């Protein structure tokens, strides 16, 4: 009996080890064990990320997860927009504001874990994000998938370069987008933070009016915020470089915390 019992015990250990190995191979061991604070990151190329990054920004963020192309969670690391279902070629995806947004949020609150849904598209106009469009529908669908294992906490929006020559209707279109997303997610007070685009009095004078429109958002729509692009550096007078993107991400976190505290 003892030999039979011993053989049974060894067999159980063998099966358990095999299952554990298979789980590790499939990556399921990296799945979050707790509910996540979920954030949706959408917009155009600066949200997708065009800033190069080095080794210090290449590794996964502890307690932070990214929704992959199969709508499963994986450790979040750059480039965060690689699983966007509407993105341009993978070679264009680099560091966006989401990386240092997440690091800052996690530094401010040691008791949370974050889940990111990053679904940006370079070159997109705000008109392409209106309710019913492919970009809107995919953002909504993936967010709903993320909500099955997390709690929606906010939306980060960085877009406007494509609309900077015709800024007059931008704010109204942005307000409609916020209203539609809140209604479809059934969250009337969902925090929404929009970032300003690069402005330079000589190199990019036409973006000032657009940024002025974005700056009005917090006064016109409850539970919204605006992130300034003042003093951010760029690669090409449009796309923020690595130092600029890091600072932009930190500003998004600070503004999101401010809105959440309302």
Describe the model.
The chain has 262 residues and is an alpha/beta fold. It has 8 helices and 7 strands. Strands 3-2-4-1-5-6-7 form a 7-stranded mixed beta sheet, sandwiched between helices. α3 crosses α8 (242-260). The chain is globular. Residues 8-29 have low confidence and may be disordered.
Q: Helices, strands, pairings?
A:
Elements lengths: L1 H25 L9 E8 L1 H4 L15 E4 L5 E3 L22 H11 L5 E5 L15 H13 L3 E9 L11 H15 L7 E4 L11 H9 L1 H4 L3 E4 L14 H19 L2
Parallel strand pairs: 1-4, 1-5, 2-4, 5-6, 6-7
Antiparallel strand pairs: 2-3
Helix pairs in contact: 3-8
Strand order of the largest sheet: 3-2-4-1-5-6-7
Mean pLDDT: 90
Helix content: 25-40%
Distance between the termini: 68 Å
Helix/strand class = alpha/beta
H/I helix tally: 8
Low-confidence stretches: 8-29
**Major sheet size, sense and barrel closure:** 7 strands, mixed
Order of secondary-structure elements:
HEHEEHEHEHEHHEH
Radius of gyration: 21 Å
Q: Beta-strand percentage?
A: 5-15%
Shape verdict: globular
Based on DSSP secondary structure assignment, what is the total number of beta strands?
Answer: 7
Observed structural traits:
single chain, 262 residues, alpha/beta, seven-stranded mixed sheet, 8 helices, 38% helix, globular
Put the structure in a nutshell.
It is built from 8 helices and 7 strands. It is α/β, with parallel strands linked by helices and 262 residues long.
